[in-house]
Amino acid sequence: MTAESHGYGIYWIIWGVLLVLTFVMISIGEANMSYLIKGALLLVGAAAKALLIIFYFMHLRLEKAGLAVIVLVGIFLTGFLMFALPAYDGAHVFENLLYR
Amino acid sequence: MNRSAASQVAESPWGGGVAPFATSWQKLMMWIFIVTDGLLFAGLLVGYGVIRVANGSWPDQGEVFHMNFIALMTFTLITSSLFMASAVGGAQAGKKSHVTLYVWLTILGGLSFLGMQAYEWTTVIHEGARLTSNPWGVPQFGSCFFIITGFHGMHVITGVTILLIVAIRSALGRYSAEGVEIAGLYWHFVDLVWVFIFAFFYLI
Fold this sequence. Notes:
Chain A is mainly α. Chain A has helices at 2-30, 35-57, 65-89, 91-97. Chain B has helices at 3-11, 25-55, 61-64, 67-93, 96-126, 140-171, 177-203.
């Protein structure tokens, strides 16, 4: 039973961290900085929240490593490529955004 | 699946004839569905990114949306995920009343989120936003908003429906710990998608 109450405690901690990350991301969103830095910070924040949800709420950390590889490579690598390929095409626009 | 059998499989290399990922096929299928569904939203967000970069200008979200309200929607969804995790924990410990209570709390969170989204949609529609035009800037802003948040909202409706079935079954004592866990996987995924929509559509 102690292991289970410890399990519930973890959920509350993750919940708190997710809320803090959300608050930090809102502050970054409202801050006055270049779109590129803002985008990079928000990407890191969103990825951190996603990994916390996947590993702790969805218990991927308790599954076999092969399943974690399927999920992480499937979503993150493919998702990254989907973003990266058109981003190259739009690079000339990013140059303008850089100094705003 | 029997817990000890699952851990046995988890510790051994796969030699065929056993579950390759030490999960039932139902849970494995949910994970694979989540990957493909995640790529659907990645596609929608990439489409939005291309449209936004190609246009060069984009409405200031702070002028269109009330960020405190969007933050409240995010809070509601994250909290409902906490309730769902709690329900899954209760199901694994075999506490029926705990499962029923927390699944209902999760449903309440989901319905609150849907209510807030309905309010948000109503507000922007009254302010003149349509699929093809809007008062704040490039016309694609409207289509991106309605399609991306609409797809997500549809997933929340599906999740609430699944959870209602789980809640009714658990009240009747006809639930399995794994059934609750699989429903929970889907619900957390809906929360996960909102994390990215929140970051890329509302914040940046």
